[in-house]
Structures are given as C-alpha cells and as structure tokens.
C-alpha cells in the first residue's frame, strides 16, 4: 500500500471514530482521543489504556459508571489517539531524516 493510501486510511479511521455515529458524545470521544480534559471517573482507565494496558482491571471499568458500549468507544478512541500521535511522530522523524 503506498504511503498516501496508508495516511488516507489512518485519517479515515480517526474521522470515523471521532465523528461517526456512536453511543458516546463526540466531545467525550475527542477528549479520549487527545488524552486531555477527561472526566475524573474515566481518566484512570484511559490513562492505563495508553500507558500500561496490562494493568487494566474490571474495577477500572466499573469505576467509570458508563455503559459497555460507551466504554468500548472511549477505549478505542484513547488507543487510536495514542497510536496516531506515535504514527505522526514517526512520520515527522522520517521526514526530518530525509532532509
């Protein structure tokens, strides 16, 4: 797959999870994606998603008070947000190395 197609696919994924239909408000999905401005009830869970996912427990999910569908969407947004930041950093490093 050419680089432009990969970047387009990644942008389409981000657009879909942030603005597509879902059970969770777009604003909350965007905050989960950015890892900023999170409600205290979901912050510990989403922090673990991006820093140490093997440490997530059932209690982390229960502490949020959210429905399973909402939790799924927020976890996906947090994970894709983190991977997007890493992807963009890697592309920037490659671009810098080429100059």
Written description of the protein model:
This protein is an all-alpha fold and 99 residues long. The protein has helices at 3-19, 26-34, 43-51, 58-62, 68-98. Helix 1 packs antiparallel against helix 5 (68-98) and helix 3 crosses helix 5 (68-98).
Multimerization status: single chain
Low-confidence stretches: none
The radius of gyration is 15 Å
Give the overall pLDDT as a whole number.
Answer: 93
- How many beta-strand runs? 0
**Global shape:** globular
Task: Give the tally of structural domains.
Answer: 1
Counted by DSSP, the helix tally is 5
Brief synopsis:
This protein has 99 residues and is mainly α. The chain is built from five helices and no strands.
Structure characteristics:
72% helix, 99 residues, 5 helices, Carboxymuconolactone decarboxylase family protein, mainly alpha, single chain
